Input
Amino acid sequence: MGRPSLLPTTSRPSPIRITAPSTRSFRGYAPLRTDSPPPSDVPEGTTLTTRLKILIKSYGWYALGVYFFLGAIDFTISFVAINFLGAEQVGKVTTYIKGTVLQMIHSKQEEVIPNGDEGKQTSGVGSESLWAMIVLAYSVHKTLFLPLRAGLTLTITPRLVKWLNSRGWGGSAGALRAAAQMKDKMRRKVDRD
Output
């Protein structure tokens, strides 16, 4: 029996295979995936958020773009509605809350308050009212408008992708074609004028 050799062997190690974890490209526009079921094939009884997740998995950046675009619109609508319908009430409530909190703080730290500041009160609508309206609008945007936003995303995205693909504007190469077509269209309009 021979002794084991302490010298390294000359055999090569097996090559390591590195594979990409996903076929989805996050540069530019994601291609339409055909391996996942379209949202219309989802069984009845699934929740709206599950259907939205399936739509985002199927259509990628298109679905997210539609969702965020609709989110920006409904946040703006809720902020404008709160501003027009209740800016004064929001201002009064924030002033009341701020005064109550300040009274609680000042009652605990009376010796810190200088004598000349005791009679001052904040008035009306200020920057705290703006922040209160933003927080309130965001709350309305995230709660009341969510079903509407998700439903519209589920409805609009497949039609948008179908329209883009019919014009040859789908995918990253389609975005370049769309930009070239718009550039040519604008150039022809300038030449006519």
About this structure: Residues 91 and 130 are 8 Å apart (CA to CA). DSSP finds five helices and no strands in the chain. Confidence is low (pLDDT under 50) at residues 19-37, 117-125. The helical segments are 48-59, 61-108, 127-143, 146-166, 171-192.
